[in-house]
Write a structure and sequence with these properties.
The chain has 1455 residues and is of the alpha/beta class. The protein is built from 56 helices and 26 strands.
Length: 1455
């Protein structure tokens, strides 16, 4: 310690700094030599060799002149005195190195865009300031006999001679910060080619900025100017630096992962290797900040002694020098802190981008049954965000021991060895005692993440199935399930927050404990306590309090990050399920696919046997048409997946395919975007091909109906389209790809018979006449066109060959299917329509077209309007704050928490003043009394901290729960149109990220702001009490700060709002890509989707990067203002008469003033963060006020318990329109559905079929007329009373993750025996019995472990179990084979004898045996009678439909 003080006092510190510069120069040279300059041709073209200006050359020459001067003076000293002084020798070496660096830089910086190196600029600044100070104090010493400060070396002639050259260096520094690096103002304009190549860098304001601009964040000024006058849009945000782009960041991380030699890659190691350079630079700023923060406590004793000394011999210059050092140290601390924090944010942006790309690529490579959407959303929303945020805390790990060491040095100097050791042991004890709490926090956080995963998975599944939940009136049941999952999560959050309260109390109390123990040891040992040493120790404890206070947060962050990084690492480490087949450039001549003998099985299926077993080789030649048929669950889809390489091979030889492929899955996959985008799928527009494809897929009629044509925007997953429209769009996507091989998984089941025949003829037989096509079908009329027919049963190929050969085998599986098909056709009698009647029928042909429960006339308008999320503008409204603060216990606990903070702050200041005042004069109070009162006051403050922490956690838990309940309740009560127009990622974002922020972040941010303001005001009051003049300075500074805040917040607020908005498309893209991964891989579109992902991530990074920078911009400016006020306070104290000063109080003010800028920055940071974070509350509150449907239950009008008794439906003058600005969809529908009858509804697309069904379920409310069910007006009863008495089977079968029992009986109202009965009736019993768990067998997310046909049968079984009086079927058996369909239709007829059955028909056999058929057209009733009556009239629309169906099917029957 003595050596350290002598080191400072003797001026060796300056020599040490010069020596440090020498070492830095050497390191810089080494890095320049080793650096690999990899510049591609474009980068080379973006620079131009220029002749250097005269000023640049003079600057470099000046360095050489100064170096030679010092070397000459050094030689002179050796010649005269036999030795040279250390200062001259070091200066000679340093200037020599600087000269070499300058000359090297002149050659290097001839390329436009380069600047002087930072180390050289720093050396110029340091040497210029040092020489200037030496000259000033030497002159003062000469003329006024003022003593030269000890920290300055003695002057020599070279210092004076070289000072004028320093002006050149300041000029060079200014040039270095401008965008015109090394160019004259008269330099000619760059040519057009150079301007184009510089576009990217010009838009990247950060990279173009100089040192001064970086230090003060001036590069953000244009953005603030733009944001001040108008609302910021995405195009106003500049680009991010190239190294921070998703492409560069992910490439760097992937390279780091590849370099790891071990089998088990370490993600943390790879991340650190990828970012080590910016991390080290960031660490330097963190170290400078920490070092500068301890200069204040080091000088406090000197300053207090200066104020305490009555001797006037101590000149005011010494006080001014001390005040100046304080000011310089605080300024350095502030600037380095801003660079540290911004650098940490920048590293976080880079790591987030890299991890998002890595997770996306991994998600895209995982096969069927991969990671669920909920888990991926948590990866992006929570885990990746937390890993990125961790770099804000990373340097705290090594800074903590450094800070403790600095503190011990200061304590040793002031108090001696044993008190310092006591302080160290107490600090270690406090830290060690935190270990069990940290472990508990880590475990609790793991539990929270697991619970959150489950809740998000359930929420995601619920949103995807919302239409079914509404129609079945299952919202209350699923809400209860969701609330149970939330309660589990909440219980872990509650324990976590109360544990955090204990940690917060422990570490707020730790400085008190350390100070009491330290001063107690001093009193026991009799160590003299002076006011200056006590205040210095207290200042040290206060600075040490920050790392100790942050230690629980640091430990918690380490624990949370470890959990997150383990989750991501485990996901990335999963076995890469790369495609099992690839393009084969060449194979056997003319062969497209070679199917070899082998076995294939899904990894996530529970059946032990292989899903697909191929026993013999099958070669499919190019241009061949192959049909695959078989009963439900026979393995048709699995066979296609094995050809695609999407199903793992467990034995045998892999299947080979040659050329490009296109795949059409059975469950349609539609992207959010326009119809044209979905069809083109990344390929260039070929108008002729496009029009042919659209016509072949029967999309031309639909496109004409939409206002936007093929530029109409589709909602998420194509929710606004019918099942047939989705299927036709993805069929068009496949055709437009112009691939070599087409794999079609039952593309005709979702469309009506007429459209199916049209597509088969136009697509397969015409557009694809020379292509290889493998298609699965249940429509046996399409088999005879195939060159090869493959028949599947129980996962085996039981028959394959030509169609004509197979039908000769009367015992074959195909014949069994054909017999069932013929039986189905025999139900249809031809109408009495011959001769001229045929012509009439043809002219008035009435097509049966598919529809879903959404009207196509509104699909484009709804989706287009809601594709981009609407946001609030301006500041977050006060009602958002008031709602949040008063959500828990009406805000009753808030005043108590604030009172606890006021009492804590008051007792803290009182205890500090007490011990400083008591130790100012020997004998003023006894030592025992001094320490006991100090301990009592300090202990009282700790007690209030404990109360504050517990109450704050209580408020946080209750507030978060109330907001969650309000949001989720409002969402579930929203009309179905809300879900059609709102992407699920938007809802999930609020349910995940926003809810997490509300759970554990916002209450503490808001409280932290209030606490920091109380502390700041208390310091202002204390400083104003010591020197009243400072109060007016504070008024001015606060006014300027408020102006800055107002100027800043307009831009910052919009940027903060953009952050979640720009994150939502990433989640949307992730979700879409995961669900369509098979399609993306089959089309070989991975690279396009990865590029799209990179663009979305870069947009998000741009906003996050500049959002972080804006806060530092504000803090730099306001920090300087408060540092200046602190400097003026010290100047006032130096100049005040000694008699007017209470040294203890003045020293206390100076001690607290050291924290002024840090505290002010904390206030600003919290103020900005609170508003930014409150946007999450604002977003949640927006979803608590969604317009809801009619009440679930109308207590004033409830139907009888057994209603409806008969099931009679009367529709009277029904008019429906979706919006007052849209035309009516139903126009005066009047008809009666008799009780216990079967009614079929047919009509063209847009005729109103789906709207009529929606009106029946009150999914859309009618504007005129009424619907009576058993004489009860359905508009008067509650929705739950209505929908729970009706049953519906939608066209898209929906299964939930869980068990078979839960899917069949979600409300758990039936016994197992009843469930098995309906399983047998729906031919599902055998499938269920294959798993030993029977009814408890698991069902995967979206029912992925069941085929689409099996899912439809499960939905049918679910309805049969309910036994309702009214049943609505929307082509419930579209995806099952004909034989199964015949049996199911028979089952439906038998099981629904006493029910009214309404069928939206797509296939003639489905409605031909109905009691009545309703034909709709343009929202009106065209025909309504029995099928027999309608067939008697050859001119009826129904007759034309039947004739058309029979014509298409006759060829198959004849065969």
């Amino acid at each position: 310690m003595v050596f350290f003080l002598s080191f400072v006092e003797s001026g060796v510190a300056m020599d040490f700094i010069v020596l440090a510069f020498c070492l830095v120069f050497l390191v810089w040279f080494l890095m320049e030599i080793l650096k690999k300059r990899r510049e591609n041709c474009d980068a080379e073209a973006s620079f131009r060799i220029e002749k250097q200006t005269l000023f640049v050359k003079i600057t470099a020459l000046s360095n050489l002149v100064i170096a030679m001067s010092y070397i000459g003076f050094c030689v002179h000293e050796v010649w005269i005195f036999g030795a040279s002084s250390i200062v001259v020798l070091l200066s000679s070496i340093a200037w020599s190195l600087a000269s070499v660096a300058a000359v090297y830089s002149v050659n290097r910086t001839r390329r436009i865009g380069k600047r002087w190196p930072l180390v050289l600029v720093c050396w110029w600044c340091f040497s210029s300031i040092r020489d200037l100070l030496i000259m000033i104090f030497s002159l003062l010493n000469y003329f006024k006999s003022i003593q030269i400060p000890e920290f300055l070396p003695k002057s020599n002639i070279i210092d004076f001679a070289t000072l004028p050259l320093s002006v050149l260096f300041f000029k060079a520094l200014l040039n270095n910060t401008s965008a015109k690096n090394f160019n004259d103002s008269t330099q000619p304009l760059l040519d057009e080619e150079l301007e184009k190549s510089e576009t990217f860098r010009d838009s990247d304001a950060f990279s173009c900025a100089g040192i001064w601009s970086h230090l003060t964040f001036r590069w953000l000024n244009p953005l603030f100017k733009k944001g001040h006058f108008e609302k910021l849009e995405m195009e106003d945000i500049p680009e991010i630096p190239r190294p921070d782009t998703a492409d560069e960041a992910s490439s760097s991380l992937e390279e780091s992962l590849r370099k790891q030699k071990t089998q088990s890659t370490s993600l943390p190691t790879a991340i650190l290797h990828a970012i080590w350079r910016p991390l080290i630079i960031n660490g330097v700023f963190a170290g400078v900040n920490t070092t500068a923060s301890y200069i204040g406590p080091l000088l406090i004793p000197s300053f207090v002694n200066f104020l305490s000394t009555k001797d006037g011999s101590l000149s005011w210059q010494r006080g001014m020098i001390l005040a100046s050092i304080f000011f310089i140290a605080k300024t350095l601390e502030s600037l380095s802190q801003r660079q540290w924090y911004f650098g940490a944010h920048r590293i976080g942006v880079r790591v987030r981008a890299a991890l998002m790309v890595l997770i996306y690529k991994k998600s895209l490579s995982i096969k069927y049954g991969g990671t669920s959407n909920g888990k991926i959303i948590n990866f992006i929303n929570v885990d990746v965000e937390r890993i990125g945020d961790f770099f804000w805390y990373l340097h705290g790990i090594w800074l903590l021991p450094v800070q403790v060491m600095f503190a011990l040095v200061i304590l040793y100097r002031n108090l001696g060895a044993l008190p310092s050791v006591a302080a160290l042991l107490t600090t270690i004890f406090v830290m060690v005692s935190n270990t069990p709490l940290a472990n508990m926090q880590e475990n609790l956080h793991t539990k929270i993440m697991e619970a959150k995963d489950s809740r998000l998975k359930a929420t995601s599944e619920m949103l995807k199935s919302m239409r079914v939940l509404k129609l079945q009136s299952w919202e209350p049941t699923f809400l209860k399930k969701l609330l149970q999952l939330r309660e589990t999560e909440r219980s872990w959050v509650k324990r976590y927050l109360y544990t955090s309260s204990a940690v917060a109390f422990l570490f707020w109390a730790s400085p008190t404990l350390v100070s009491v123990v330290t001063f107690g040891v001093c009193i026991i040992l009799g160590t003299p306590l002076a006011s200056g040493t006590v205040l210095s120790a207290l200042a040290t404890f206060r600075i040490l309090q920050e790392p100790i206070y942050n230690l629980p947060e640091l430990i918690s962050m380490i624990a949370q990050t470890k959990v997150s990084i383990d989750r991501v690492q485990n996901f990335i480490r999963e076995e890469d399920q790369k495609r099992l087949i690839h393009y084969n450039a060449s194979g056997a001549p003319g062969v497209a696919i070679e199917i070899e003998a082998g076995e294939y099985a899904w990894e996530n299926r529970d059946a032990k046997r292989a899903t697909i077993k191929i026993t013999e080789k099958i070669s499919i030649t190019k241009g061949c048409k192959v049909a695959i048929c078989g009963s439900v669950g026979s393995g048709k889809t699995s066979l296609l997946c094995s050809i695609l390489g999407e199903i793992p091979r467990i034995s045998g030889t892999r299947i080979k395919t040659y050329g490009s492929k296109a795949f059409v899955p059975q469950s349609a996959w539609i992207q959010t975007g326009t119809i044209r985008d979905n069809v083109l799928f990344g390929k260039e527009m070929d108008r002729n091909l496009y029009e042919n494809v659209v016509e072949a897929c029967a999309l031309d009629h639909d496109i004409k109906m939409w206002a936007g044509g093929d530029l109409s925007v589709l909602g998420e997953r194509g929710t606004t389209l019918s099942g047939g429209q989705k299927q036709r769009i993805q069929m068009a996507r496949a055709l437009y790809s112009n691939s070599d091989t087409y794999l079609l998984d039952d593309p005709f089941s979702a469309v009506d018979a007429h459209t199916g025949a049209h597509m088969f003829k136009k697509c397969l037989m015409q557009l694809l006449y020379n292509k290889t096509v493998v298609y699965v079908t249940h429509q046996l009329e399409f088999l005879d066109a195939a060159d090869l027919v493959v028949v599947m049963k129980h996962g085996r190929i039981v028959e394959w060959g030509k169609y004509q050969d197979l039908i000769l085998n009367h015992d074959g599986e195909l014949i069994r299917q054909m017999t069932a098909h013929s039986h189905s056709l025999n139900q249809v009698s031809p109408p009495k329509c011959i001769g001229s009647g045929k012509s009439y029928c043809h002219n008035k042909q009435m097509e049966l077209t598919e529809e879903k429960f959404v009207d196509t006339s509104r699909s484009s308008q709804v989706s287009d309007r809601n594709l981009h999320e609407e946001t609030e503008t301006g500041r977050v409204k006060w009602h958002v704050y008031s709602t949040f603060v008063t959500s828990a216990y009406r805000g009753a606990l808030v005043p108590i928490i604030l009172l606890c903070q006021v009492l804590f702050q008051g007792l803290q200041m009182a205890s500090n003043y007490w011990i400083a005042w008591g130790s100012e004069e020997e004998g003023r109070v006894t030592k025992e009394r001094l320490i006991w009162i100090f301990a009592l006051l300090s202990g009282g403050s700790s007690f209030f901290i404990l109360g504050r922490a517990i109450l704050l956690s209580t408020i946080a838990i209750e507030t978060a729960q109330r907001l969650f309940l309000g949001m989720i309740g409002s969402i579930l009560r929203a009309p179905i149109s809300f879900f059609d127009s709102t992407p699920s990622s938007r809802i999930l974002k609020r349910s995940s990220t926003d809810q997490s922020i509300v759970d554990t972040d916002i209450p503490y941010r808001l409280a932290g702001l209030a606490f920091a303001l109380i502390q700041l005001l208390s310091i202002v009051i204390l400083m104003s009490h010591v020197a009243w003049q400072v109060f007016f300075l504070f008024v001015i500074v606060f006014s300027i700060s408020i102006w800055y805040q107002v100027y800043y917040i307009k831009t910052a607020r919009e940027l903060a709002r953009m952050v979640p908005i720009r994150q939502a498309p990433i989640l949307q893209h992730f979700s879409e890509s995961i669900s369509g991964a098979t399609v993306i891989r089959s089309f070989n579109q991975e690279s396009r989707f990865i590029n799209k992902n990179l663009e979305l991530i870069d947009d998000y990074s741009r906003v996050a990067f500049h959002n972080a920078g804006t806060m530092e911009w504000l803090c730099v400016r306001i920090n300087f203002l408060f540092n200046f006020v602190f400097f003026l306070l010290l100047v006032i104290l130096v100049n005040l008469p000694r008699s007017a000063i209470d040294p203890s109080l003045a020293g206390l003010a100076a001690t607290y003033g050291l924290n002024l800028s840090v505290l002010q920055a904390w206030v600003i940071w919290n103020l900005c963060n609170v508003e930014n974070k409150m946007i999450s509350v604002e977003r949640i509150l927006r979803f608590t006020s969604i317009p809801s449907e009619a009440p679930l239950i109308n207590e004033n009008f409830r139907p009888e318990t057994e209603w409806p008794l008969s099931g009679k439906i009367e529709i009277e003058n029904l008019h429906v329109q979706y919006s007052p600005v849209l035309p009516k969809v139903l126009r005066g529908i009047t008809c009666t559905f008799p009780a216990e009858k079967k009614i079929g509804i047919v009509g063209r697309t847009g005729s109103g079929k789906s709207t009529l069904i929606q009106a029946l379920f009150r999914v859309v409310e009618h504007t005129e007329g009424r619907i009576l069910i058993d004489n009860v007006d359905i508009s008067k009863i509650g929705l739950q009373d209505l929908r729970s008495r009706l049953s519906v089977i939608p066209q898209d079968p929906v299964l939930f993750q869980g068990t078979v029992r839960i899917n069949l009986d979600p409300l758990q109202e039936h016994e197992d025996q009843e469930i098995w009965e309906v399983l047998h009736k729906c031919h599902l019993a055998e499938n269920v019995k294959q798993d030993q768990r029977l009814l408890d067998a698991p069902v995967a997310e979206d029912g992925e472990n069941w085929s689409v046909g099996q899912r439809q049968l499960v939905c049918l079984a679910r309805v049969l179990l309910q036994r309702r009086r009214i049943l609505v079927l929307d082509e419930a058996t579209a995806s099952v084979d004909t034989a199964t369909d015949n049996v199911i239709q028979k089952t439906i007829r038998g099981e629904t004898n006493g029910s009214t059955v309404i069928t939206v028909a797509h296939r003639i056999p489905t409605v031909i045996d109905n009691d009545l058929v309703l034909v709709l057209g343009e929202g009106k009733v065209i025909e309504y009678d029995s099928p027999a009556k309608l067939l008697e009239d050859s001119s009826s629309a129904f007759s034309s439909l039947v004739m058309d169906f029979l014509r298409r099917s006759s060829s198959t029957v004849n065969n």
